[in-house]
Amino acid sequence: MDKMWSGRFSKGAAKLLDEFNASIMFDRKLYAEDIEGSIAHATMLQKQGILTKEELESIKKGLKQVKEEIESGKFEWKISDEDLHMAIEKRLTQLIGDAGKKLHTARSRNDQVATDFRRYVLKANKNIIDGIYELMDAVLQVAQKHTTTLLPGMTHLQHAQPINFAYHLGAYLAMFKRDVERFESSFERNNVSPLGCAALAGTPHDIDREETAKLLGFSSVSINCLDTVSDRDFALEILFNISTMMMHISRLAEELILWSSYEFKFIELSDEYSTGSSIMPQKKNPDVPELLRGKTGRVYGALVGLLTVMKGLPLAYNKDTQEDKEGVFDAVETAYISLEILKETIATMRVNEENMLKACKKGHLSATDLADYLVEKCGIPFREAHFITGEAVAKAEELGIDLSDIDYKYLKEIDSRIGEDVLPYLSIENSMNARCSQGGTSTKTTQEQLAYFKRFIETKKGV
Question: Is the pLDDT reported for residue 289 higher than 80?
Fold first, then answer.
């Protein structure tokens, strides 16, 4: 019977219970956070007179050796130790004796794991923010080259109005900017220290929670210990933020898949980020965006899983919350690689401007401009203008041409009020540039938007 908590028990734990109960094979990922937290806790205990200077130095030296053993692969992780906290404390005590047993004074595994896990999430939060900035920069670099590249803007996946490719990419820059802001907000809200809450009700020992918070880089301490030890809102928030970010990534991935198909041929993905078929030698498959689309469901599952774990838990700590980590670890790693590979895929893809322009000649994208002309220049009510434009589109269909290429004589036959000054209104390029209202697609307003995103990246990247 070698459990640190086994004093009250007359029988040892069953092997099956050890296997079922243990988290050590996944929570050992938090070893650095755990050791850093223990050093901060011991430093505070010495400052408060609970540990001697000699005991503190012994603990610090022992923990340093434990960390070296873990990182060199010499540390032995045992299922019977349950979790990394017990494993590290056990090894520390083997190395330094009774001083190691004093480390757990005025704390519980409840506040210890809450501290470790929160610090992991906060670090991941910052790393993901950095990754989003890198992705935004890659998208911006492509967009800046294509503020005059015409592209059919769509609704219902049907050709609607002409836009430029940079404007389309700018929509994703706006999404990713919101993602950054969500992660930043979560970081500020959750940067509070749980350490010192002990099991659920605080501790009678004279501790200084503000000191350990400062040593660990927290901005403040939590307010209510009962809430703190069972709180996993910070984990839910990062899962929600990753899920929303991956939803945005998935939308872009879907468009990359469509655009790289033979039906569109708007882009060609680099050979470095494409795969082939085992049977069809002509194939070039968009596996990267397809996997990004698929991994979005994976992180959604982690979010829903943890929400379900937490939904009925009474206060305070319950063993159910051991199920909080694996989904978060997986979602964080998925976020890291997804941001990195999408950045490279965007940076290395080739844009087929000619095919985008050809697509703009299908679907009569300047139809709305003709209706606007009838209203502005001829004084025709919009509903009547809408009907006349429909007739013009039908005529173009009959002739087998796009409305932008229709001869003036046909428009005159449809309605005598139409003058020759209508022709510039039917130009695809003019149509795109006419939409110069704030946030619109004209080259000028698109350039203004890209300048805004460039400033955002330059002023906040790395902050």
Answer: yes
Annotated catalytic residue, options 6, 185, 219, 277:
277
Sign of CA dihedral 134, 450, 144, 270: positive
- Give dist(CA 297, CA 307) in Å, integer: 15
Structure tokens at 83: 């979790």
Question: Of the listed 156, 278, 416, 437, which one is catalytic?
Answer: 156
What's 439's DSSP letter? T
Whole-prediction pTM: 0.94
Question: Which residues neighbour 233 within 8 Å (Cβ) at sequence distance 6 or greater?
Answer: 190
Please give the share of the chain, as a percent, with pLDDT higher than 90. Answer: 92
Strand partners of residue 422: none
Distance CA 117, CA 236 (A): 12
Running DSSP on this structure, what letter comes out for residue 143? Answer: H
Specify the amino acid at residue 226.
L
Q: Could you confirm whether 364 is annotated as catalytic?
A: no
Rounded to 5 degrees, φ, ψ at 283 are: -75, 145
Concatenate the DSSP letters of all residues of 75-139 into one string.
----GGG-SHHHHHHHHHHHHHTHHHHHTTTT--HHHHHHHHHHHHHHHHHHHHHHHHHHHHHHH
How far is the C-alpha of 140 from the C-alpha of 143, rounded, in Å?
5
> In whole angstroms, how far apart are CA 103 and each of 46, 131, 193?
10, 37, 18
Please tell me the predicted confidence (pLDDT) of residue 463.
45
Q: Is 159 a catalytic residue?
A: no
Question: 82 and 38 in contact (C-beta within 8 Å)?
Answer: no
CA-to-CA distance for 267 and 352, rounded, in angstroms?
5
